[in-house]
Predict the 3D structure of the following.
Amino acid sequence: MFFSEEMNRSPKMFTTPTVRQAPADTDGVYAFHIVGEVTSDDMETMAEYMNTQFDTHDKVSMLLIFDRYDGAESGASLDWDVIKSRVRSVAKVDKYAVVGAPEKAGDMVETMSKVLPVDGRAFDTEAEGWAFVGAKPKEEELRT
C-alpha cells in the first residue's frame, strides 16, 4: 500500500485503520494515535509518510500515543520502507516520545536514547509527551 491523499482526511494528515495523526500546533512535530493491531500496510504507509517528512525537514519530533495497542502483525516491520525510515530517523528525529506504550517498548525507547543521537522518552500521560516534543494538540484534535 502506498501513501496517498485518498487515504487521509486531508493531504497533510495521516490516517490508516489503526494509526491516526493528531494535528500539532508546531511545524515539524508529528503525533500519532495507535489503536488496535498495527498491520504491515499500516507500517509501510506510515514509513512512506515519515520518509516524505524527512525529505522536507532537517529535524522532526515524533509522539506516539498508544490508546489501545494490540501489537503488530508478524513481519510488519520488515518492509523496505519501514527499515529505511528507521535508519533515516537516527539522523532526522530530534525528540521521540511514546505515551502509554507497552512496558518493554517504553524501556527500549529509553535505552536506545542513551546510545543513539535521538532524545527518546516514555511517558504515562499525553500532556507529558506533548510537552516533551514542544507542541500542543490543535483545537480540532480536542473536539474529535
